[in-house]
Specification:
MFS_dom; membrane; Major facilitator superfamily (MFS) profile domain-containing protein
Length: 450
């Protein structure tokens, strides 16, 4: 019986990677007398089937996961300043759509490599994934500082760094379920805040140092910061329960008969197809359409990520009470409305208000997605495979979404087609809102409650 419990606990590690809902079995374990939160002085590790839900070791995992979010999504959210620099200076001979492939490749690999990182994590290779992924991220950033050609930037910043991000992102979230049950939402919220914090700081560093030290050293300074951040998870993060020994399919055939899940996944495709268009193009739009000075334009990405900090934490804190899918609808519809309003932004004040609000609502969309997958899954044993399927769909959308926007925009900023570009982004989010609403209605008919 104990062996069965241990297997069950291990099997849920990956599937609950970014879950913000309580688990009855984990709560039962939390009530055990082995709880380290009620006995913080205890040096005895609880058995694998008991979630400690606190303690120094558990919170060090949160710290490590926060550092990994800095090195992954934090960099992806920073690409807007690189996009603007490449378009105007380093890669000015290439159209915006080609340059967008660099950032979209990086983001897509974070999803797509994660499909394989999940099973490797379950098999007990967490430390191998962590160390290899951190190395690729730091190495790719250093190599980017030496690049002078398009193919070099694509290889270093796109493929190398993206592969490292994919190896570390999913396991860093999954490991928190081994340490938290009742406080899981708080732990995930704190960890996810690392992304917008980095997206706030890195654009300032790059824009300031690029002018005084040049592109090479501005990029290398960020690489040294990433190296220091990498030391935190490498030093402190470790799995608490033994790896799962059983075999498990990567495809859950029942999902193709699950209407709410399929509708939500289809909505996720359109959401991630266009969600990051403002992140990539707000700097260029500000300087060409909203009378924003060249010196202040990079700070638009900074403010966008600052707004995202609230979007990562507040919706997750409310989701347990009001429902993950309900909060997702609020965030997605708000994002769509704001992007339609982007067409009316013509000055600095409007740009600042837009990026702060869009950062908050879009941040909620990203942070709530895994929790909604759990809410729509029939049981926790299928969450991992359903997340993997969703990663494939979302990764494909991220890969092609912003290059399509770049192709619509055109090659020269003076003749850029901003109205169709903004409408492309807004309509994608509107379609996602409709499909998410459909998923909510189907789920209501299935379970009979909101």
């Amino acid at each position: 019986m104990k062996e069965k419990d241990s297997t069950s606990a291990s099997d849920s590690d990956r599937t609950e990677g970014e879950i913000s809902i309580p688990n009855d079995q984990n709560i039962a374990g939390f009530k055990s007398s082995h709880n380290t939160e009620t006995d913080p002085a205890s040096n005895v590790d609880p058995p694998p089937d008991v979630v400690p839900d606190g303690g120094l070791t558990a919170w060090l995992q949160v710290l490590g996961s926060t550092a990994i979010l800095v090195n992954t999504w934090g960099l992806i959210n920073t690409f807007g300043v690189f996009q603007a620099y490449y378009e105007t200076t380093l890669l000015s001979s290439h159209p915006p759509s080609s340059i967008s492939w660099i950032g979209s490749t990086q983001a897509a690999l974070l999803f797509l490599v994660g499909v394989f990182a999940g099973p490797l994590y379950d098999a007990g290779y967490f430390r191998h994934l962590l160390i290899t992924g951190m190395f690729l991220i730091v190495f790719g950033q250093f190599m980017t500082s030496l690049c002078t050609e398009y193919w070099q930037v694509l290889l270093a910043q796109g493929f190398c760094m993206g592969s490292g991000m994919g190896m570390t992102f999913l396991p860093s979230a999954a490991i928190l379920s081994q340490y938290f049950a009742r406080h899981r939402a708080l732990a995930l919220g704190i960890a996810s805040a690392g992304s917008p914090v980095a997206g706030t700081v890195f654009p300032i560093i790059f824009s300031k140092l690029e002018k005084s030290l040049g592109f090479g050293w501005a990029t290398r300074v960020i690489a040294f910061i990433l190296l220091g951040m990498s030391a935190i998870p490498v030093a402190f993060m470790k799995t608490r329960v033994p790896p799962h020994k059983g075999k498990k399919s990567l495809v859950d055939k029942s999902l193709f008969k699950d209407g709410p899940y399929l509708s939500f996944t289809a909505g996720g495709f359109f959401a991630f197809l266009t969600l990051y268009v403002p992140f990539f193009y707000i700097t260029l739009y500000g300087t060409s359409q909203a009378s924003v000075t060249e010196s202040f334009a990079p700070y638009l990405v900074t403010l966008l990520n600052a707004g995202s900090i609230f979007g990562r934490i507040i919706p997750n804190a409310l989701a347990d009470r009001f429902g993950c899918l309900n909060l997702m609808l609020v965030c997605m519809s708000g994002s769509a409305i704001l992007v339609f309003g982007w067409l009316g932004v013509k000055n600095l004040a409007g740009s600042v208000v837009f990026v702060l609000l869009y950062g908050a609502f879009s941040g909620g969309v990203v942070s709530l997605t895994p929790s909604v997958v759990v809410e729509l899954s029939p049981d926790l044993s299928r969450v991992g495979t359903r997340m993997g399927f969703g990663f494939i769909v979302s990764g494909t959308a991220v890969l092609i979404g912003t290059p399509i926007a770049g192709a619509v925009l055109g090659g020269e900023s003076a003749n850029a087609r901003w109205v169709p570009t903004v409408l492309y982004a807004a309509c994608g989010l509107l379609i996602a809102t409709f499909l998410y609403s459909t998923a909510r209605f189907l789920q209501y008919r299935k379970k009979g409650g909101w």
